[in-house]
Amino acid sequence: SLTDQRRAPPETERLSKPKMGLMYNTVRFAQIPNTCLALLHYTLIFSILTYVSLVSVWLHKGYQTFDEVQGTATLKVKGSGISNTGLIFDSYDLVVPAIQPGELFITTNYWLTSNQTREICNGSEDDGLCSKGCEMGKFTDNGRLTGRCFPNSQYCEVEGWCPVENINKKYKGNIINNIGDWTILLRSDVKFPKFGASYSNARDEIELGKNLFKVEDILKKTGYSYNATAAKGGVFAVNFHFDCNLDDPTKCMPDVKMSRLDIPGSASYGFNYREATYTTDSHTTATERNLKKRYGLRFIFGFSGQAGKFDPVALLVTLGAGAGLLGVATLVCDMVINYFLDPERTKAYKKTDI
Predict the structure, then answer these.
(1) Which end of the chain is more exposed for a tag (fewer CB within 10 A), N or C?
(2) Beta bridge partners of 71
(3) Longest dimension (CA), the chain
């Protein structure tokens, strides 16, 4: 009716006044006849597609999901050697403690202070010089100073375990020879819980260079030799690195990397520790102590790396991220149009809100 036509708002008025203030914006495209611009656009698209397919998908294995390695090292040491004093030792004497989680220590040199008892005796360089005075009651590394000096003694008198340990820093101690020829079985057992896969480098056979190593060979891979490290010892890292492709289960062997951690020539390098054993004299009931300072090679074993397996979800995520990069081609072309092309030739190119 005429009344309804008067009441009905125009079509443009209804579109210009949306309910709740909500609007949807779209873009109007225009074709620009420019060969260089078209070549730029298709070159960018081709480059992005090449990057996604070769780098993201292939090189970075974007079609796989990954799991971190979990593992443990089982160590067996065999060998024997002879000290500078002519004593014969085997691995049971020198691998102390016998079991350490993820570590191994082999004694290569030692200094023994035998039959110590609690009494008063002449001190050492650590207790101070008599010529500079001895402070009574002062505690040092060897015990408590008495404030006195023995006749014709150079160092202060001390109360503690006597005789005190007095290592000649120029003396190399009791280096054990032939340890460089000892063998270490490095068996690595790893698991990738996410995939339920497990591997061992000693499942088939024991092979030199694969899971069986000589001490000298390990040291050489770090750039050192046994003769250069026997006196003061050293700290070495042995890392089993895995980069497994479980789509081909046969390709999951570790790359064993070895390096030295301490810095030779620094103020304190090498590795050593002291151990004490106690006995009681049946006649005097006095307690005696044997103090041994052990120098040696400390090996620390670790695991790193991951395993990957095909996953369609991971592939879709990678392709989706690559598809988003295609917008870069349009963005670059828009910038070229707005800032570099002749404005008279691009008048038809306009983006308008509808």
Answers:
(1) N
(2) 190
(3) 135
In this model, does residue 47 exceed pLDDT 80?
A: yes
Is it the case that residue 106 has pLDDT exceeding 80?
yes
pLDDT band, residue 19 (cuts 50/70/90)? low
Is pLDDT at 350 greater than 90 in this prediction? no
Round to the nearest angstrom and report the end-to-end CA distance of the chain.
Answer: 31
Predicted pLDDT of residue 353: 40
Q: Of 190, 207, 193, 302, which is closest to residue 253 (Cα–Cα)? A: 190
Q: How many C-beta neighbours within 10 Å does residue 183 have? A: 17
Report how far residue 186's alpha carbon sits from residue 106's, in angstroms, rounded to the nearest whole number: 15
Contact 167, 111 (CB under 8 A): yes
Give the side-chain half-sphere CA count within 13 A for 169: 4
Summarize the confidence of residues 194-219 as an average pLDDT. 87
Burial-class residue 152 by CB neighbours within 10 Å (0-12, 13-18, 19+): exposed
Contact 164, 158 (CB under 8 A): yes
DSSP 8-state secondary structure symbol assigned to residue 98: S
Query: How far is residue 297's CA from residue 175's CA, in Å, rounded to a whole number?
Result: 12
Q: What are phi and psi of 124, to 5 degrees?
A: -130, -170
Cα 274 to Cα 322: distance, rounded to the nearest angstrom: 60
CB 337, CB 346: distance < 8 Å: yes
